[in-house]
Amino acid sequence: MLTPDQARDRAADIVTRAKAAGADAADAVYAADTSLDVAVRLGALEDVGRSESAELGLRVFVGKRSASVSTSDLSADALSALVDRAIAMAREAPEDAWAGLAPAERLMHGAPPMLDLDDLARGGEEASPTALRDAAQAAEDAARAVPGVTNSEGGSASAARSIWALATSHGFAAAYATTGYGLSASVLAGEGGAMVRDYAYSSKRHRSALDDPAEIGTRAGNRAVARVNPGRLASGPMSVVFDPRVGSSLLGHLIGAISGQAITRKTSFLLDALGTQVFSSGVTVLDDPHLPHGLRSRPFDGEGLPVSPMAIIDAGMLEAWLLDSASARQLGLEPTGHAARGVGGAPGVSTSNLHMAAGDLPPETLIEDIANGVLVTELIGMGVNGVTGDYSRGAAGFRIENGVVTGPVAEFTIAGNLKDMFRELTPANDLEFRYGINVPTIRIDGMTVASG
């Protein structure tokens, strides 16, 4: 794999070639990664996989026309053909008044911030297949040792390293490396057709920061056993409490509704909500791309703009749309540093380390006045309308009776409208940074529950 500097130079070189061949402007992405995955099941090695890939994507502009092409063939002849093909395609493409590179005056200059995203650069050792197998085995062993666990889907461990580079024809070229490590276990409890499954996992930039394998396995086993012999809920309105594992999906719906593309296309249930109270005053949602060794940290966005922490929701108020340069131009606003770029195509929008700030109450206090409610630990299906905000999803979890979490329940649907759900949302104080999007336990009153 190339070094970040070499990757940067490779992206810059193809941009230079595109300009020389007649493009008015261009940008390029170089992405490479290596990964190693090991899976075990029932105490035996089941699979070992290693992959390596490298791709280069080029976007060119001829006037207001543009085209994007990509290749994994990085030979000199293939790259020359790539440039010619991209320019030919751009000349035949329809005009787009909003397309173009990011504003030159907004580009990040100087060295990217140091975010400690590459474990190997800081002296970490490359993970061996044997070490990954042993970790996966220890996680599965611990899960299978939990009384009541009857079968296993296995344990797995992974290690990966990626290089990402971006260069533009108007003065930006930079790259960075990241590592990622994962460890998981998934097991079943119960017998026959009544079997239930659950899992636990840990994902970190630094291998030494992973949760202990035995802890992961025990957590997976206990979760599976707790779900055995689920009952049914009575249908009706009630308070719904979202476990942090599934509550993060609510922020996903928020981000989809405030992305530039949704606003410019007028396909958002929050279309007229900028600067208004969307949540209660106790809710703040933050995006922090500079979180050291964060799972979604990044030194610059997909167009070469600097990134910085920001409050998307501040005391319940919607503070900003999330804009790449094209959607910002269309709306007459400035890009927000949230452009996200794959190897192919134009930039979209993405957050980094998104989280909902912790509230004031522990989860036990948050639910102590719920006489009849449900704790949701699993969501099923995607019944969410981004235009209207209507929300309906299958779920499983645990009954809440007189302020106490009791037995498991399954095969029910929770429904509402995201506008109402956001206003009724109350966060607990148990926020942990375990995932790419993190939330504490969340309570939403007045949802409709229908038993299957």
TrEMBL record:
GO biological process, one term: proteolysis
Entry GO MF terms: metallopeptidase activity
Domain Metalloprotease TldD/E C-terminal: 235-450
Boundaries of every Metalloprotease TldD/E central domain copy: 126-227
Domain Metalloprotease TldD/E N-terminal: 26-90
Signal sequence annotation: none
PANTHER family documented for this protein: METALLOPROTEASE PMBA
Protein name: TldD/PmbA family protein
Organism: Sphingomonas glacialis
